[in-house]
Amino acid sequence: MKLTITACMLAAFALAAPAVAAPQESLGPDAEALASARQKAVAFLKTAQADDGSWSSPDAIGITALATHGLMAAGLKTDDPAVAAGLAKIAGAAQEDGRIAVPDSRLPGYETAVCVTLLQAADPEEYAAIVKRADGFLRGMQFDEEQGVESGDVAYGGIGYGPGGGRPDLSNTAYLIEALRAAGAAEDDPAIQKALIFVSRCQNLESEHNQSASAAAVNDGGFYYHPAAEESPAGRTPQGGLRSYGSMTYAGFKTMVYAGLEEDDPRVQAAIDWIGKNYTVKENPGMGSAGLYYYYQLFGKALDIADMDRLTDDAGVARDWRKDLAERLLAEQNENGSWVNENERWFEGDPSLATAFALMALADCDPRPID
């Protein structure tokens, strides 16, 4: 699904267009450099794959799904041996209750969601039975009336890492919505609209959708991780609010696009305003190097599905974000084809995970479809 950012946002946020008399500038990174980077990254992931089709660990179903998706994002087909082995590993992890994870996993929500998105991209017909059960499992994890959570509760509509309690967060809820949309859910699906309620409460925007003290204290349109426990890894502002940060703001914006919000919705406008003011590919704004490759992946996906070619940064410069992001990623690629974050928080010291995120981001940077 694409949300076209049209005249309203072009005026509000100065999404740049070339002058009428100027030749149309091509968007995105250099094709030859991009192809070379992908080729090297694919070679790395193939050497890093275990004999059982997994990456990082036999039990790391989430990383295996992301690495397999990264290979497909680089243009590999499902009959490629590495992709086929990754898909077989994931299909073999499908459980009777619908989760796609090893039985004792602590992260079945996240793992099932990323697996559903991958399997739908690979072959919806072949994996239809697995995806149907997984869809039911994910829906059953949502904090709603069936779990005794009413709409006024700040946990309402979200999901966490696993069923049976715990706490919901924006990252897992964003993965949920992407998986449900991939599996065929419409924008007005009840689970997606419930999730939108939770996501809106993660936004630092005082409105009818979020009347928390944190939103009023910051009110900058960005997003944070967890409203139920009032938690943001980026910390608090001097005023006591939960500080917005990059990866969660792109996750929130992406979710609003998937949930069908119109371009003139104040939540959408406020999110894009924050993105423009905090535009950067040098760090995860508000978090520095922590979660950098996850940030890159969310950055690319959110702007791509919103169909935004350019946006204006805080200095008033119209940015070709695809070119900016791709060039940054290419500059950070290691000689062996991998990417890795020296900041190991959230497992990004694992080159298989960081490389998977980078390949997925590069796919969104490329306006030219891969044959």
Q: Helix- and strand-based class?
A: mainly alpha
Oligomeric state of this protein: single chain
Report the strand count: 2
Q: Which stretches of 5+ consecutive residues score pLDDT under 50?
A: 1-24
Q: What's the CATH architecture name?
A: Alpha/alpha barrel
Q: Biggest β-sheet, characterized?
A: 2 strands, antiparallel
Under CATH at level 1, the class stands as Mainly Alpha
Helix content: 40-55%
Radius of gyration: 20 Å
Distance between the termini: 20 Å
Number of helices: 14
List the secondary-structure elements in sequence, H or E.
Answer: HHHHHHHHHHHHEEHH
InterPro entries: Terpenoid_cyclase/PrenylTrfase (IPR008930)
Signal peptide: 1-21
Protein name: Squalene cyclase C-terminal domain-containing protein
Keywords: Signal
Verbal overview:
The chain is an all-alpha fold. It has one domain (28-365): Alpha/alpha barrel (Glycosyltransferase). 47% of the residues lie in helices and 2% in strands. The protein has 14 helices and 2 strands. It has helices spanning 7-13, 31-48, 61-73, 81-92, 108-122, 128-141, 170-182, 190-200, 213-218, 246-258, 266-277, 292-305, 321-332, 351-365; strands at 310-312, 318-320. It has a two-stranded antiparallel sheet with strand order 1-2. The longest helix has 18 residues, at 31-48. It is globular, with a radius of gyration of 20 Å. The two termini are 20 Å apart. Mean pLDDT is 90; it is low at 1-24.
